[in-house]
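Task card 7
Instruction: Convert sequence to structure tokens.
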Amino acid sequence: MAFDSMQQRQIMGRFATGVTVVTTRYGEDISGMTANAVMSLSLDPPLILVSVNKSSNIHGYLTQGKCFAVNVLTSEQEDISRRFAAPGPKDFLGLALTVAETGAPILADALAFVDCRLVEVVSGGDHDMFIGEPVAGDTQEGAPLIFYGGQYTQLS
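Output:
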């Protein structure tokens, strides 16, 4: 019997995660998405993995642009997370942005960021896993935005 995908969603919803906005650039176009399917894949060599639905708007930008930045959000950036979680084109208006090495947009007020060059794409069901080599990154002080049980929360 096949495992129920809604049960999988409920089970994995009990796994507390940080919240990120993954951004990319292809030519003059930029795109982003809220993501918690992000991980440090390897330290030697350094590799970051981002899982992206094959039907999402950002998928083509990542494939063509061959770069991405993972922006770790602070507890005060829930509105940014909601903005980039909504379907359709993404609105960067009013956000303080910078760039590092690849040209992918970096949220200037993020808790941390890692800027990556795409090195491999691996298919996994309805998602592709974009594996990137970090080429720049930084951290700031602050509290992270946390997602648990289908809701935003903060560390107490």
